[in-house]
Amino acid sequence: MDVLKNKKLIYIFIGIITIIICVIICVFIELNDNKNSNNYFPEDSIVNNENIENFGTKEKTENNIIVHVAGEVNNPGLVEMKEGSRIKDVVEKAGGFTNEADIDKVNLAYEVQDEQKIVIPNINDQSDDVSIIDENTDFIKSDSNNKKGKININTATQSELESLTGIGPSMASKIIEYRKENGKFKSVEDIKNVSGIGSTKYESIKDEISIN
Q: In three state form, how does the secondary structure of 29-87 look?
């Protein structure tokens, strides 16, 4: 009887060990599958023309923007970038300039916005500088504001706005914040809707600004 009892205990012990091993194996397999599934998409990504149709099905990451870069870059296409990225960052994400790129015409410090198209010029192009097309297909020249002596308040960066008469860092930030919340200025005079810009300040900058 003691021998039979001992055999039963051995069988029970073996059964328990077997169950524990099976549970450990299942947990390990599940953890490994989850780890692999998290590696499908990098935080920032570029989509070339070959798979551009599939890009539209992937939702934009929160706080990121999507920019279309074309022209003289090694990997033209759609690029997902962090907010506040510059043309320099976009070009790097697109594989860098080609040997035919006219780098002197590119304002690398220009801050890009969501849904813009950045066209890097060829050294044989006759245009003045890089073309930037926003979501409404308005053409913007990265350096043309300075050449015309006017700042485009719909696209100007913080530093460009600060170059206006009487506009400091705080007021420049308010203009950018207003633009983000309310969209583009429909007229130059609409800048008076920004808190802190009254008729007097408007009169001092109206000849320095434009909306296109």
A: HHHHHHHHHCCCCCCCCEEEHHHHHHHCCCCCCCCEEEEEEEECECCCEEEEEECCCEH
Give the span between the Cα atoms of 30 and 34, in whole angstroms: 6
d(CA 55, CA 164): 40
- Domains of the chain, residue spans: 41-142, 146-212
Question: In the structure encoding, which two tokens stand for residue 64, read together?
Answer: 């990121």
Tens digit of pLDDT for each residue in 112-122? 888 888 888 88
Q: What does the alpha-carbon distance between residue 128 and residue 20 come to, in Å, rounded to a whole number?
A: 72
Give the mean pLDDT of 37-49.
47
On the CB side of 175, CA atoms within 13 Å amount to 30
Q: How far apart are CA 178 and CA 194, in angstroms?
A: 6
CA-wise closest residue to 104 among 85, 120, 93, 119: 120
Helix, strand and coil content of the chain, in percent to the nearest 5, comes to: 45, 15, 40
Top-level CATH class of 146-212? Answer: mainly alpha
CA atoms within 13 A on the CB side of 58: 20
